[in-house]
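Researcher: Let's run the pair from yesterday's discussion. Sequence first, then tokens, for each.
Model: Starting with the first of the pair.
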Amino acid sequence: MLNEIICNKIRSEMESIDQLFQSYSELLGNAKDCEPDLISITAIASVLHSFYSGMEKIFLFVAKEVDTNVPIGSGWHKALLTQMTEETKTRKSVISTEIAEKLNEYLGFRHVFRNIYCDLLDWSMLEKLILPVEKIWTDVKTEINLFLETK
């Protein structure tokens, strides 16, 4: 069951993600108009990494505190994302399968970001992730807020 403490932790993380996009709004807006330089690409990559890391924190709150079941092993990140699409005896799904499919791209990027030198980042890969990210975040927030209403 969702209690107020868990709901507040999730809401706080959502506010942090909102603040992330607000703080970098100029950078993200400029990226829609022209290809950024290396420093901007590095900053955009960091925003994408932070976005998915924030999502994962929310999912971990649910897995730990509601499901009492956190995936383990080498594929735990993907398993956690899938777990959030599933309804359980104690909760409804946190996100839809459609949203999870979109977030899976950010999960994949998270791994790349942690294992590559920033000067090797490819703008064409980042562009496909950064252009829709704010719309995806809006859709994710809608679904998470619906989930929070079920407490």
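Model: Moving on to the second of the pair.
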Amino acid sequence: MAELHSLKPFQRSRKKAKRVGRGLGSSHGTYSTRGMKGQRARSGGSSGLKVLGMKPLMHQTPKNRGFKSIHTKPVVVNVAVLEKNYSAGDTVSPETLIKKGILNEAKVRRGSIKILGEGTCTKKFTIDGCTISATAREKIEKAGGTIR
């Protein structure tokens, strides 16, 4: 049985360290694999990144261009959609928009709802819990609707 004092590393598993600068016969003499002159031939001269193997890794990673805002954009609903899906006197709120299938629940959870003024408005709506553009506000109030 092998004991601690008799353990040896496996043959060829340990490489000998490269002995640099030990004469011309060693094949690593004169310039000692540093080339001629220059900053990197001198002592203390080193290459770019200090963490070895980091440069190719940095070149491989995709660089995302552009800008991504931290502010979520509101979910947009036009007045024409409200005109088509709601009857006069109905209340327009995030809950009713989800129930009628106009908006997805996940989208509503992510951000606010904004009503835009594209289309015509002839019915009276009560709008609750939504932000409204100036043109949409004008059209809804002209039709006799209220905004809370």
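Researcher: Give me one sentence on the second I can quote.
Model: Residues 75-147 form a domain with the Ribosomal Protein L15; Chain: K; domain 2 fold (CATH 3.100.10.10).
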